[in-house]
């Protein structure tokens, strides 16, 4: 049967909306319908939400709020308005997987603490290393974490690290003052990397550290990319960077063994020497993989927190004034320029500024887990094989958790935060391995900044961009000088 020419426009016009509807419901039919058809003995149902378009899911909505509107918290607020609060769980399809978003303290705590069900997975472990803390689970994770925290996060280790990082920090601040106008983000990154070089491998600034920096840039770009090892892809490039980093760290490790360079007391030495209760040591591969993990864990996060501290203190001079008062009092009682980790633990207001800075920085908007079996939480189902996206950013910006959350107010830490509302370092067994180190480094930076320098934002109204992490668009362009 022939369709006359005049009928085609009607077919197309009628077909397009149908196609649109099919597109809109495709993921719901593919992922949600089969689950709805299964009977649940307990009557648990999927959390409310929508799975978005085929393949991309809700990516466009996510980009709309994070990249175009630059109001990231509206992504969750829109869900709350549309589907109700419930227990803070929404279904979605995001970053390539069907997922459950969790955005209230109690449900996040449940996920963090059920590490036997919700595991940490990366698209590929080849980049971080199969023996890295990020890649291992269960008992192996427990063993490795106890090694690593002993070397970087416990009071004995922090005592040494405090003294090791300050000369570089002081030299960096001095050079900023000489330049006068600086991009704070670029400078704190440089300072953080130099400290990492010194702390992890006893490396001084120079061409090798510059190469390591470039290689880490390439490696981190590939971490969340689809693991297709095809020339030209971010993942392929990241694998090449990983190989080169492994060769550099392998050479450093050999040098330490053969030249008996073992007394530098850097992190690599620490990892090479430490023994567990049975007297066992880490293997060479474990040492190398974990140096890589620690740089990945500590470099960007510490740089961002330091940048936000500089930005927030410039915006809130009253806070800087109080900070300066406390830190000048500490300096007055000292003969040397350096402070100790014991000094840091006495600096009450400074430590409140640290917590508030890390809350506001929100460098990790989300934390990812994979549900390894079907689970229920308060009548809602989390299907096996789906991702759980713990939307920790929202926990820190929800007015139900923090009054006036977008105001930088260290005094709020005079009272402890409401239970479960401070998840900047994640939680459960996977809680950040460098959380105390990060806090101490930031406190030391605040000490030297506030007692010796002043600075001013050149663009106080610069917009904040949120991808791939939150940062004022100008990278915090400041005039910086000695007091
Ligand atoms: C302000 C700075 C920092 C922030 C906001 C931060 C945040 C985080 C977050 C959110 C996680 C994920 C936790 C989870 O999956 O539940 C994490 C894990 C981790 N962080 Fe940090 N971090 C910071 C600094 C550091 C530093 C300085 C180091 C080490 C030098 C470090 C090393 C690690 C490691 C190794 C893990 C993996 C822990 C595991 O899987 O058991 N982080 N961090």
UniProtKB/TrEMBL annotation:
<keyword id="KW-0472">Membrane</keyword>
<keyword id="KW-0503">Monooxygenase</keyword>
<dbReference type="InterPro" id="IPR001128">
    <property type="entry name" value="Cyt_P450"/>
</dbReference>
<feature type="transmembrane region" description="Helical">
    <location>
        <begin position="7"/>
        <end position="26"/>
    </location>
</feature>
<dbReference type="GO" id="GO:0016132">
    <property type="term" value="P:brassinosteroid biosynthetic process"/>
</dbReference>
<dbReference type="GO" id="GO:0010268">
    <property type="term" value="P:brassinosteroid homeostasis"/>
</dbReference>
<dbReference type="GO" id="GO:0016020">
    <property type="term" value="C:membrane"/>
</dbReference>
<dbReference type="GO" id="GO:0004497">
    <property type="term" value="F:monooxygenase activity"/>
</dbReference>
<keyword id="KW-0349">Heme</keyword>
<dbReference type="GO" id="GO:0016705">
    <property type="term" value="F:oxidoreductase activity, acting on paired donors, with incorporation or reduction of molecular oxygen"/>
</dbReference>
<keyword id="KW-0812">Transmembrane</keyword>
<comment type="similarity">
    <text>Belongs to the cytochrome P450 family.</text>
</comment>
<keyword id="KW-0408">Iron</keyword>
<feature type="binding site" description="axial binding residue">
    <location>
        <position position="432"/>
    </location>
    <ligand>
        <name>heme</name>
    </ligand>
</feature>
<protein>
    <submittedName>
        <fullName>Cytochrome P450 729A43</fullName>
    </submittedName>
</protein>
<dbReference type="GO" id="GO:0016125">
    <property type="term" value="P:sterol metabolic process"/>
</dbReference>
<dbReference type="GO" id="GO:0020037">
    <property type="term" value="F:heme binding"/>
</dbReference>
<dbReference type="Pfam" id="PF00067">
    <property type="entry name" value="p450"/>
</dbReference>
<keyword id="KW-1133">Transmembrane helix</keyword>
<dbReference type="GO" id="GO:0005506">
    <property type="term" value="F:iron ion binding"/>
</dbReference>
<keyword id="KW-0479">Metal-binding</keyword>
<dbReference type="InterPro" id="IPR017972">
    <property type="entry name" value="Cyt_P450_CS"/>
</dbReference>
<dbReference type="InterPro" id="IPR002401">
    <property type="entry name" value="Cyt_P450_E_grp-I"/>
</dbReference>
<keyword id="KW-0560">Oxidoreductase</keyword>
<dbReference type="InterPro" id="IPR036396">
    <property type="entry name" value="Cyt_P450_sf"/>
</dbReference>
């Amino acid at each position: 049967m022939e369709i006359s020419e005049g009928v085609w426009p009607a077919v197309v016009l009628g077909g397009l909306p149908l196609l649109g509807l099919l597109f809109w419901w495709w993921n719901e039919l593919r992922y949600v319908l089969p689950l709805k058809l299964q009977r649940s003995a307990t009557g648990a149902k999927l959390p409310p939400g929508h799975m978005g378009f085929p393949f991309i899911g809700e990516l466009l909505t996510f980009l709309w709020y994070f990249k175009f509107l630059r109001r990231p918290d509206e992504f969750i607020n829109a869900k709350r308005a549309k589907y109700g609060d419930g227990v803070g769980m929404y279904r979605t399809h995001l970053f390539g997987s069907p997922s459950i978003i969790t955005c209230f303290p109690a449900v996040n705590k449940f996920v963090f603490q059920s590490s036997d069900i919700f595991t940490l997975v990366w698209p590929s472990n080849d980049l971080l290393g199969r023996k890295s803390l990020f890649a291992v689970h269960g008992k192996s994770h427990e063993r490795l974490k106890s090694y690593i925290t002993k070397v970087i996060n416990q009071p004995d280790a922090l005592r040494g690290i405090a003294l090791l990082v300050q000369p570089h920090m002081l030299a960096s601040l001095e050079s900023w003052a000489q330049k006068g106008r600086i991009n704070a983000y670029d400078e704190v990154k440089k300072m953080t990397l130099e400290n990492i070089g010194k702390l992890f491998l006893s490396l001084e600034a120079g061409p090798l550290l510059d190469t390591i920096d470039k290689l880490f840039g390439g490696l981190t770009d590939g971490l969340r990319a689809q693991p297709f090892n095809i020339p030209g892809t971010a993942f392929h490039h990241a694998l090449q960077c990983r190989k080169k980093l492994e060769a550099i760290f392998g050479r450093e490790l050999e040098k330490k063994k053969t030249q008996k360079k073992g007394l530098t007391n850097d992190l690599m030495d620490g990892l090479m020497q430490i023994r567990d209760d049975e007297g066992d040591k880490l293997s060479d591969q474990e040492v190398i993989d974990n140096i890589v993990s620690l740089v990945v864990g500590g470099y960007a996060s510490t740089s961002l927190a330091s940048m936000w501290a500089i930005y927030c203190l410039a915006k809130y001079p009253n806070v800087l004034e109080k900070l300066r008062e406390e830190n000048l009092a500490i300096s007055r009682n000292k003969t040397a320029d350096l402070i100790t980790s014991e000094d840091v633990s006495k600096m009450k207001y400074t430590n409140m500024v640290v917590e508030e800075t890390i809350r506001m920085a929100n460098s990790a908007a989300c934390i990812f887990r994979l549900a390894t079996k079907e689970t229920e939480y308060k009548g809602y189902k989390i299907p096996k094989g789906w991702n759980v996206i713990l939307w920790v950013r929202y926990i820190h910006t929800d007015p139900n958790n923090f009054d006036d959350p977008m105001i930088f107010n260290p005094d709020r830490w005079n009272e402890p935060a409401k239970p479960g509302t401070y998840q900047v370092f994640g939680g459960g067994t996977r809680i950040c391995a460098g959380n105390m180190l990060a806090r101490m480094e930031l406190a030391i930076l605040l000490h030297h900044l506030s007692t010796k320098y002043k600075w001013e934002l050149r663009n106080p109204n610069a917009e904040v961009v949120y991808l791939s992490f939150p940062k004022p668009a100008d990278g915090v362009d400041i005039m910086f000088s000695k007091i």
